Amino acid sequence: MESGPDFELLKDAYAIIDGIPESAVDLTGLCTARGETLDQMVCSPAGWLARHPDFNRLGLTLAGDEDRLALNGDPAPRTTAEAMAQLFRLPLPEAEHLFGSRDTYTLGDDSGLSDKRLFLRELREFLRAHGQTGEEFEEQLETRAPFADPVRPDQLGL
């Protein structure tokens, strides 16, 4: 049995969340808005992963009224961090940090980043700290700090 974090699976999670619209990621709860289509959904990163077919095949799903996670069909009450720790083979404190609330990342500091950008920043830093962000990974990143390259009105034809 392998030990240590499943870095490849974490990179897959990064790519999935990076593809979700900014306004559809909310660190408040698993799914804070529901609708008929995915465009009307707002979920946390863990909530989105629990909706993704690749992660469903790994046993991660939403249970009950989408208010908790189930792993391998076990809807036993568990925290998001516990489910993510088991799925990604993370120590619980690291899972709590990566899949926690906005305050987990900012410690009360309002960085101005969206919930999506905060999650991606923290996951990228975790991967980087473990030597998992080679050149290929860094090149595919689309995540940038907001207003890194501000657009001037003349560039918009105004």
What does this structure look like?
There is one protein chain. The chain has 158 residues and is mostly helical. Helices cover 42% and strands 8% of the residues. The protein has helices spanning 7-18, 45-51, 53-57, 80-88, 92-98, 102-106, 115-129, 135-140; strands at residues 31-33, 42-43, 60-63, 68-71. The strands form 2 sheets. The chain has a two-stranded antiparallel sheet with strand order 1-2. A two-stranded antiparallel sheet has the order 3-4. A hairpin with a 4-residue loop joins strand 3 (60-63) and strand 4.
Topology (elements, then pairings):
Layout: H1 7-18, E1 31-33, E2 42-43, H2 45-51, H3 53-57, E3 60-63, E4 68-71, H4 80-88, H5 92-98, H6 102-106, H7 115-129, H8 135-140
Antiparallel strand pairs: 1-2, 3-4
Helix pairs in contact: 1-7, 4-5
Overall form: globular
Beginning-to-end CA distance, first to last residue: 60 Å
Number of H- or I-type helical stretches: 8
Which residues form runs of ≥5 with pLDDT under 50? 143-158
Beta content? 5-15%
Largest sheet: 2 strands, antiparallel
Which whole number gives the mean pLDDT?
Answer: 81
Structure summary, number of beta strands: 4
Query: From the alpha-carbon coordinates, what is the Rg to the nearest angstrom?
Result: 16 Å
Order of H and E elements: HEEHHEEHHHHH
Q: What is the quaternary state of this protein?
A: single chain
The proportion of residues forming helix, as a percent range, comes to 40-55%
SS-based class? mainly alpha
- Strands of the widest sheet, in order across it, are 1-2
